Amino acid sequence: MEKPTNRRQSLWIFGYGSLIWKPDFEFTSSKVGFVTGYSRKFWQGDTFHRGSPQMPGRVVTLQEDYTECTWGVAYEVCGDQIESTLQYLNVREAVLGGYTTKLVKFYPQEEGEEGEILALVYIATPQNPGYLGPATEEDIAAQIIVSSGCAGHNIEYLLRLADFMHNYCPDAEDKHLFTIEESLLTILPCLCSANDPVSVLC
Ligand code: SIN
């Protein structure tokens, strides 16, 4: 009798925030694409990675909105990679971040609606204690400017996300993200004149 094996099992994980540029787990393949029915919002407070208990940063979550879609990167983890990845992400996203998991339909950029993939996503809901909820884009930018945590400055988080959108999906809309980016670059004129604002922070 053949021994049961999980070698061919695979799990897709969709990242729309820090998981885009810093997955920090082993994966077999990755695809840029989008999920529908959600918009990305800087509505989750962060007292660990990008802020402190005294000055919580703002990081992204997904808000249900049937008219919108959110772009990001989906990672395929296979076999033995699955358990260790889920353990790692449970600490990073759930325990330290306040996120819970959900399954969503992910559409790879190249294949569009044809290539639908079921993916796990980490979402921060209003029920978690770190949730901050809506604020004006100007207020969010002002909060991001003064916050930093163990993973780095909150400005870096915002600019890396905006850079991903500009570089990998230049035609995609993300009004909330781009308005915050614009606000921040207006408040910080010295960053506006730099060619690569992200590198200024690293
Ligand atoms: C994600 O990246 O998918 C979740 C939000 C974050 O960790 O920034």
Automatic annotation (TrEMBL):
The keyword Cytoplasm is assigned to this record: yes
Compartments it resides in: Cytoplasm, Cytosol; Golgi apparatus, trans-Golgi network
Protein's GO biological process: apoptotic process; glutathione catabolic process; nervous system development; Notch signaling pathway; response to unfolded protein
Keywords recorded for this protein, A-Z: Apoptosis, Cytoplasm, Golgi apparatus, Lyase, Neurogenesis, Notch signaling pathway, Unfolded protein response
SUPFAM superfamilies: Gamma-glutamyl cyclotransferase-like
E.C. number: 4.3.2.7
Reactions catalysed: glutathione = L-cysteinylglycine + 5-oxo-L-proline
Nucleus as UniProt keyword: no
InterPro entries cross-referenced by the UniProt entry: ChaC, GGCT-like, GGCT-like_sf
Entry superkingdom: Eukaryota
This protein's GO CC annotations: cytosol; Golgi apparatus
GO molecular function: gamma-glutamylcyclotransferase activity; glutathione specific gamma-glutamylcyclotransferase activity
Record family assignment: Belongs to the gamma-glutamylcyclotransferase family. ChaC subfamily.
Role noted for this protein: Catalyzes the cleavage of glutathione into 5-oxo-L-proline and a Cys-Gly dipeptide. Acts specifically on glutathione, but not on other gamma-glutamyl peptides. Glutathione depletion is an important factor for apoptosis initiation and execution. Acts as a pro-apoptotic component of the unfolded protein response pathway by mediating the pro-apoptotic effects of the ATF4-ATF3-DDIT3/CHOP cascade.
PANTHER family: CATION TRANSPORT PROTEIN CHAC-RELATED (PTHR12192), GLUTATHIONE-SPECIFIC GAMMA-GLUTAMYLCYCLOTRANSFERASE 1 (PTHR12192:SF26)
Protein name per Swiss-Prot or TrEMBL: Gamma-glutamylcyclotransferase
Organism encoding this protein: Hymenochirus boettgeri
